[in-house]
Design brief:
single chain; 307 residues; twelve-stranded antiparallel β-sheet; two-stranded antiparallel ribbon; 9 helices; 14 strands
Amino acid sequence: MRTLLFFFCAAAIAAGESYPSAWNYVAPDATALVGVDWQHLKDSFLGDAVFSELSGAGHLGIPELDCLKQSRQILLSAPDFLAIFSGSFPAAVVEAQALKAGLYKTSYNGVRLWVAPEKNRRSLAQVGDNLLLAAWRDTLEEAIDRGMLTSLRQYSPLLARAARLVPNGEFWIVANALPDPLVSVFLPLRLETSDFEGLVGARNGLHLDARYNMANTEDALLSAQYFREAIPAFHAVLQNIHAIADGESVLLQLDVSAGELDQFLHPPQPAMSEAPSQPALPAGPKVMRILGLDDGPREVTLPAPTQ
């Protein structure tokens, strides 16, 4: 039995080493992950909508630093919310923008922290020039401790599921169950499910592929039917989504070509109708007829307009 347990532990560590190093900061008990391939998603039709939730005005309380827009990859985890930004973040740039945003400087285990004084705004940790973390301060400290482990590191089972999605889309979600507060920020669906996985590709049109599990096949059939009945209320670009019951699972699939997507997002404008032309007035002097005078109607010739 000890040999078997050792084998599984070794396998988990080997699998973990194949993940991006930034994923080492995810808590092993994470229940939901949201991944963003920002370097490719930012210029798509989804870019503004996604980043609006990651900016200071969004629901996640992340400090608004311009350098975060230069991220390459973004990973969010919950329930102890942690945002991991991978990119190029020179220390001097981060310091200037953090101070401007009202954060104050401190440190934990040699890692620079930028702490927000407000209770509704998260703090930042700069782990080198290529990695920024955003979370409440205690969550940041726990993540920093995890990142410093060199052996016996534990990994969330969600990471293995996420790794399978990464090559296929620019935006993906993995969750143990729905509803989930983090997932609801990006996917406002009223579903009670288990084991949700979904990805969106937006580089050449729109590709959506998702799967969620229900308690039994009957519930899966009912849920798929619910989806089909709700589709007419969706945005026009989602009208052709397919909801398919597959055993105890429901599959959601959609493919929209780049040309079709452009028509949805930029429909042709109706042609402006021209105002009817006024009939030409007859040439010659203008005559005004005055009525109601004691000696009867009188006509007065008006002078021609000056050219």
